[in-house]
Amino acid sequence: MKLDTMMEAIEVLARERGVAVDTILDAFANALVAAYKRSPGAAEEARVTIDPDSGEVIVYAQELDEDGNVVSEWEDTPEGEAFGRIAAQSFKQVMQHKLREAKREHVFEMYEGREGDLVTGLVQQVDYRSVILDLGDAEAILPGSERIPFERLERGNRVKALILEVRNEAKGAQIVVSRSHPDLVRRLLELEVPELTDGTVEIVNIAREPGHRTKIAVISHDPNVDPKGACVGARGSRVRQVVNELRGEKVDVVQWRDDIGQFIAEALGPAKVKEVHIDEETKTADVVVSEHQLSLAIGKEGQNARLAARLSGYKVDIRSDMEGVEVEPPPAADAPAADELPTDETAPEEAGATPAAEAVEDVSVESETVAPEGENDEEDAVPAAGGDDESE
Q1: Do strands 315-320 and 284-289 pair parallel, antiparallel, or not at all (unpaired)?
Q2: What's the whole-model pTM score?
Q3: Which of 258, 267, 283, 288 could form a disulfide with 308 if both were Cys (CB 3.0 to 4.6 A apart)?
């Protein structure tokens, strides 16, 4: 029995699916054995050989002893179309199974050891538990715990994610990705900043609260390169690409300093810090800011101070420069003696008082002189409240 045409198809299939020809031939031989055992008068045991050059198929019937050893063997290749149809059907079923296994192995080998790499995928399926991403040659799962809080992902969205784990399970390779991991920001920034790729600039540490704010500490190994400027880019062009991918999450870039006090002061930006006192034994930083900068330094729900503490590795205590300072009330004016107070019969002029009507008139004239309508200079205008938004 010769299968010249099928051999050509096997070779084409092997090239397209990236599967070895021997693997397909083994699957085909197993399919032929199953087909032989279903033919009339077949032996209980058999083996099949396939010549890869000529495509000739030979079925050998076998007789085994109680221990499973082959006692005798003879050629018993069935003839006719029935055996060919059964063999083709069995081959199709076995090949589908083998190809699925081969694809799973191929995907696992392709992504094994790539934990920490960045991948791009299309959102294929979204539910409250997880998101399925189509990576082109594989599928990845984005668990709910690894999503950015309050981020809306819809079918067809193209997103970037960080590979957390690659598992080889019974159903195939499972690729677990994350969008909330701090290293996602690192990989996204490396795509935009060549100095990070060539080692001129290095990311020392990252502190992140996904969906809200990220602080990155960077250092330069070249005195001629400003690490903060290299990461931010001209007019913020480089860091803006990262912010856009993170759906508006704020990203602060801070230059690493050997002086930990100076570094913590910069890490608390955009707040202006007056003093930083470091206790190396307790790893504590006592930060002093002016009263109007206190809320900005702490941040919304303590976020700014919390991220600065994670970035530096020190516990950060922030207080106002007015804290603990007692403000004395102004001294009271000398009250006139009771007998010096004007009586009801005393005229206002005699008592040195200004009539109410004249007082109102004076105030009215003065207010018009200081701020005449329509003549306020823009440079003298008081800025609107909220210029230093604590969320910034």
Answers
A1: parallel
A2: 0.67
A3: 267
Total number of domains constituting the chain = 4
| Cβ-based neighbour number of residue 131 at 10 Å | 25
Q: Which of 178, 198, 227 is the last residue of a domain?
A: 178
- Residues 248, 265 share a domain: no
Q: Are residues 103 and 187 in the same domain?
A: no
What six digits make up the tokens of 91? Answer: 């081959």
Q: Which of 181, 100, 178 is nearest to 144 (CA)?
A: 178
Q: Is-cis flag, bond preceding 329, omega within 30?
A: no
25 shares its domain with 80: yes
pLDDT tens digits, residue range 32-60? 888 888 877 888 889 988 887 777 888 89
**What is the pLDDT, as a whole number, of residue 308?**
96
Q: How far is CA 363 from CA 97, 348, 349, 372, 376, in A?
A: 95, 19, 19, 14, 19
Can you say whether residue 382 is alpha, beta or left, with left for phi > 0 and alpha for psi between -120 and 50 degrees? Answer: beta
Give the pLDDT of residue 206: 97
Residues 6+ apart with CB under 8 A from 148: 179, 180, 210, 211, 246, 247, 249
Calpha distance 70→182 (Å, rounded): 62
Same domain, 239 and 297: no
Cα 195 to the chain's mean position, in Å? Answer: 21
Report the half-sphere exposure of 44 (CA within 13 A, side-chain side): 6
Per-residue pLDDT band for 176 (boundaries 50, 70, 90) equals very high
Residues 227 and 304 in one domain: no
Residue closest to 391 by CA, chosen among 217, 250, 243, 247: 250
Mean pLDDT of 77-87: 72
Average confidence score pLDDT of the chain? 81
Helix, strand, coil fractions of the chain, as percent rounded to 5: 40, 25, 35
The answer to whether position 105 is within a domain reads: yes
Please indicate, yes or no, if residue 275 is contained in any of the structural domains. Answer: yes
Domain that holds residue 60: 4-111
Residue closest to 132 by CA, chosen among 142, 120, 118, 145: 142
d(CA 89, CA 69): 30
Strand positions, DSSP E, 12-103: 45-50, 57-64, 70-75
The residue out of 83, 111, 139 marking a domain boundary is 111
